[in-house]
Amino acid sequence: MSAVLDVFTLFTVATGAFFFFAGTVGLLRFPDVFTRLHALTKADTLGLGLVVLGLLPQAPTLLAGFKLVCVWLLVLLSAASVSQLIAHNARRSEQR
Amino acid sequence: MADFLLCAAVFVLVMVALGLVRILRGPGDADRLMATQLLGTGGIAALLLLGAATDTDAVIDVALTLALLAAFNSFAFIKAANSTLAEQARTERDL
After folding, report:
1. Contact: A48, B45; criterion CB under 8 Å
2. Statement: the pTM of the whole predicted model exceeds 0.80
3. Could you report the predicted ipTM of this complex, rounded to two decimals?
């Protein structure tokens, strides 16, 4: 049982790290502010979500696992709002 | 398992360091703010991985604080940038 959980952690954290890599490549290589915003928000939030999911079996207590999920929810909400604000600001400074 | 989690944390930190190039090159304020967002999210991921690798529970509280501060940082930056834009629009209209 513990071996299955370890394999699950391995795969999920590796996939999360790959999504971080994809998000960084998108941030560096995409041509436009808005495409870069897409890459950053989606890939990084997904990467963090997968990392948190992979760390949940390793959490020592239930409270630690609950705090992990809270961290992920907070990042999700703040990334969603901030991406809208950044896009609005970029649009306004483009139109001038 | 701890070695793998440490490697993953180092990998995420290297990605964040690469993303900071956008602060140097980004042709606008939004790009630089996005690189700071990456620093926040990547830092949270690296902290959580390090905490799981060294069996430290308190690191999750640090990651929670970092998430909150990163959110406030972005909101404050956007507020300042918007007031600068409004001021510039006002001076252009007055001219």
Report:
1. yes
2. yes
3. 0.90
